UniProtKB/TrEMBL annotation, chain A:
Membrane-topology annotation of the record: Multi-pass membrane protein
PANTHER family found in the cross-reference section: AMINO-ACID ABC TRANSPORTER PERMEASE PROTEIN YHDX-RELATED, MEMBRANE COMPONENT OF AMINO ACID ABC TRANSPORTER
Protein name: Amino acid ABC transporter membrane protein 1 (PAAT family)
GO biological process, one term: amino acid transport
UniProt cross-references to InterPro entries, sorted A to Z: AA_ABC_transptr_permease_3TM, ArtM/GltK/GlnP/TcyL/YhdX-like, MetI-like, MetI-like_sf
Native species: Ancylobacter aquaticus
Entry GO terms, CC: ATP-binding cassette (ABC) transporter complex
TM stretches of this protein: 25-43, 55-75, 87-112, 133-154, 187-206, 218-240, 260-280, 338-356, 362-387
Keyword Cell membrane part of the UniProt annotation: yes
CDD domains: TM_PBP2 (cd06261)
Pfam family, one: BPD_transp_1
Homology family: Belongs to the binding-protein-dependent transport system permease family. HisMQ subfamily.
SUPFAM superfamilies: MetI-like (SSF161098)
Automatic annotation (TrEMBL), chain B:
Organism: Ancylobacter aquaticus
Protein name, entry field: General L-amino acid transport system substrate-binding protein
First and last residue of the signal peptide: 1-23
Family according to the record: Belongs to the bacterial solute-binding protein 3 family.
Solute-binding protein family 3/N-terminal domain span: 35-257
Domain of life from the UniProt record: Bacteria
Protein's GO biological process: amino acid transport
Keyword terms: Signal, Transport
Length: 396, 340
């Protein structure tokens, strides 16, 4: 080696092995090779051993006919569909619980969290009791409670509780009328979409106008009018193309209408109320992290209590709330796999349960299922992190 | 959780074990650990059910005891692993258990693509339906539109789908992970019908609040040959488990039971009995166990008929008559291969 590359400042010339940069890259490369080799040999070995024992391997089974029924399907599915389709049905059922559960948990969590800081003794106590009871009971226990306690209290389908003769509640779930789309229904759907688009546009315009001129418009009322008025107008013009199919008791069960199965209700309610207890604590800590001076400043500007909370406190509290909130969303999604305890057809019950048993391909199916949960969690975390960046305090 | 653990164990066992290395045979492993590890159900009266002291009883349990008796001369050298329907095959594939004796239906998929071998049929069964009497249903063909509770991870889900499809009927299936949950949901009125193997229905009915309010419909919608299962790859072990059942069947056919077996061993003239009880020929040798294996099974557990009557027979709460499970010369199809 020549002297050219050496530092001028008189540091002793040394072998490239001692260069920290070269060293770290080298070590990482070795680690990577070892990991890849281990992974490869593990897979190869497993394949050989499985083949030697004549245990079926590979992902070809996804194209085979599943041959079993599922009682809640968001996409068309029958016994003649494939295992691949059964997988999608299970995945959608998991997502349904996760999305509805997250929305409910967030609403309840914020209300209870704010309630814990209320000046009203009753509200404060109820919120505290809620948090302490729900977060300290195991979630599976709560799911079973909602399912078996509430289910056995419900009447059978023949004596079901009827709301206006349209909605029926029994131990078979909640049966609601199904909308039937006739000619021209497309226009109504378009009108709804257009109304939503216009409402968002109007809100933005009103907000920027207020910033420029200081004049305030009753956005909520105008938008509400828009959202109801436009579709209604479309309905009148097209002559009410959307009708409802009212469920009707025939034989054992209701025929027609949409059935919301009790397993879904029990699972969603249990997970939402359980997770809400944790979210409430996040919200409380977030609000308490905003210094009291902010409240005083807002009050002295003439903002009312609710306005102070909505415009000053919550936006600042969000930066503390969001990161643990993300964890709670992930927990709820993963806890939805407890569905198997009450027979809700989620991904684990349908795919890692029935499909696994029928095909016997445990390694492939468990790998796919784990991959799905990992992917769902990463997507949730990415979205929440992006949101976190938006609401984070911009420091000067 | 257990399923996940078993799956990891399976993945680990398959991934890490050297491909060609020949480990000790199953029999050697069982002898060196001193007991047979037997996979059973999580509680099905008549087949495998623990009592309040944790002692297991039932047809499937007694069969495992018979295997232990043949190997060790001691029917108590068995340890039981309760498994859900879903976990059972993974537990066997990964070597967690030596025998799966858990009212398991013999099907082509299970026999040919799971790396398993069925050793015989301990109980010929068929799937049936149970329903509340006040629904006033007398035939399974009147069940269109019904909600049906069943256990996931069994052949029943597919049979159910096939039956309703073949008869052009609609249904709603609610599948639970364990038997207990199925029974609770059915008892709570979540579903109109409970479906599983008819022997299972007889057992589950006893767990209901008012067993007499429910009837089992006459239709049998499937063939469910239930039997013990072992893992591929050890023919000696396969032979032992297979011949334990045959020995019990032959003993019943020859009139040898646990009460007269000592006398028969000393005084029997019938060469078939002598071969079975090990006083003539060396038939245990081929399996690597003692030549008195047949004697030990009958002495400690009894013949097939005794085992049946004790666990599921007409004098038990399950009240199941022999039916198909009677011996071949008594109107049934149970048939033991000859010892010679």
């Amino acid at each position: 080696m020549t002297d050219l590359a050496g530092p001028v400042g008189g540091r002793a010339k040394s072998s490239f092995i001692n260069d920290p940069k070269v060293r770290s890259i080298g070590l990482q490369l070795i680690a990577l090779v070892v990991v890849v080799f281990l992974g490869w040999s593990f897979t190869e070995n497993a394949r050989d051993n499985l083949a030697a024992q004549k245990i079926a391997t590979g992902f070809g089974f996804l194209d085979n006919t599943a041959g079993f029924g599922i009682n809640q399907t968001l996409i068309p599915y029958s016994e003649t569909s494939t295992y691949g389709r059964a997988f999608v049905v299970g995945l959608l059922n998991t997502l349904l619980v996760a999305v509805v559960g997250i929305i409910l948990a967030t609403i309840i969590g914020f209300l209870v969290g704010i309630g814990r800081l209320s000046k009203n003794f009753v509200v404060r106590t109820i919120s505290t009791v809620y948090v302490e009871v729900l977060r300290n009971l195991p979630p599976l226990f709560q799911i079973l409670f909602w399912y078996l306690a509430v289910l056995s209290a419900m009447p059978g389908p023949r004596n079901s509780i009827s709301l206006f003769g349209e909605v029926f509640i029994s131990n078979r779930g909640i049966i609601i009328p199904r909308p039937l789309f006739g000619d021209g229904a497309g226009i109504v759907v378009w009108a709804i979409g257009l109304a939503i688009f216009l409402a968002i546009l109007f809100r933005h315009w009103a907000a920027s106008r207020q910033e420029e001129t200081g004049r305030y418009l009753p956005v909520l009322r105008i938008n509400l009018g828009l959202l109801i008025g436009l579709p209604l107008l479309a309905m009148i013009v097209t002559g009410f193309p959307i009708t409802f199919e009212v469920p009707e008791l025939k034989g054992f069960n209701f025929v027609g209408g949409i059935q919301v199965i009790p397993e879904f209700v029990a699972l969603t309610v249990a997970l939402a109320t359980y997770t809400a207890a944790f979210i409430a604590e996040n919200v409380r800590s977030g609000i308490q992290s905003v210094s009291h001076g902010q409240t005083e400043a807002a009050h002295s500007l003439g903002l009312r209590h609710a306005q102070t909370l909505r415009l000053v406190i919550i936006p600042q509290a969000m930066r503390v709330i969001i990161p643990p909130l993300t964890s709670q969303y992930l927990n709820l999604t993963k806890n939805s796999s407890l569905a198997v305890g009450i027979g809700y057809p989620d991904l684990v019950a349908v795919f890692a349960g029935t499909a696994l048993n029928q095909t016997g391909q445990a390694i492939e199916i468990i790998a796919i299922t784990m991959g799905v949960y990992l992917l769902l969690s990463i997507i949730t975390a990415t979205v929440m992190n992006a949101y976190n960046k938006r609401v984070a305090l911009v420091e000067r | 959780m257990k399923r996940l653990l078993s799956t990891f164990a399976l993945a680990g066992a398959m991934g890490l074990s050297a491909f060609s290395a020949q480990a000790a045979t199953k029999l050697e492993q069982v002898k060196s650990k001193g007991f047979v590890q037997c996979g059973v159900s999580q509680g099905l009266p008549g087949f495998s059910n623990p009592n309040d002291k944790g002692e297991w009883s039932g047809l499937d349990v007694e069969f495992c005891r018979a295997v232990a008796a043949a190997i060790f001369g001691d029917p108590t050298k068995v340890k039981f692993t309760p498994l859900s329907a879903k976990d059972r095959f993974t537990a066997l594939q990964s070597g967690d258990i030596d025998i799966l004796s858990r009212n398991t239906t013999w099907t082509i998929t299970r026999d040919t693509s799971l790396g398993l071998n069925f050793t015989g049929v301990t109980y010929y069964d068929g799937q049936g339906f149970m329903i509340r009497k006040d629904k006033k249903v007398n035939s399974a063909l009147e069940l269109s539109g019904a909600s049906v509770c069943t256990q996931t991870g069994t052949t029943t889900e597919q049979n159910l789908a096939d039956y309703f499809r073949a008869n052009n009927m609609t249904y709603e299936v609610i599948a639970f992970a364990t038997n207990d949950e199925v029974v609770k949901a059915y008892d709570a009125g979540r579903c109109d019908v409970l479906t599983t193997d008819r022997s299972g229905l007889a057992g589950e009915r006893l767990k209901l609040t008012n067993p007499d309010d429910h009837i089992v419909l006459p239709e049998i919608i499937s063939k469910e040959p239930l039997g013990p299962v072992v893992a591929h790859g050890d023919d000696q072990w396969f032979d032992i488990v297979k011949w334990v059942l045959y020995a019990q069947l032959i003993a019943e056919e020859l009139g040898v039971d646990s009460k007269n077996v000592d006398e028969q061993q000393k005084t029997a003239i019938n060469p078939e009995i002598k071969r079975l009880l090990g006083t003539e020929g060396k038939y245990g040798e081929g399996m690597g166990i003692g030549n008195d294996w047949g004697y030990l099974i009958i002495k400690h557990v009894g013949n097939y008929g005794e085992m049946y009557d004790r666990t599921v027979g007409p004098d038990t709460p399950l009240k199941l008559s022999r039916g198909l499970n009677a011996l071949w010369n008594k109107g049934g199809i149970q048939y033991g291969m000859p010892v010679r």
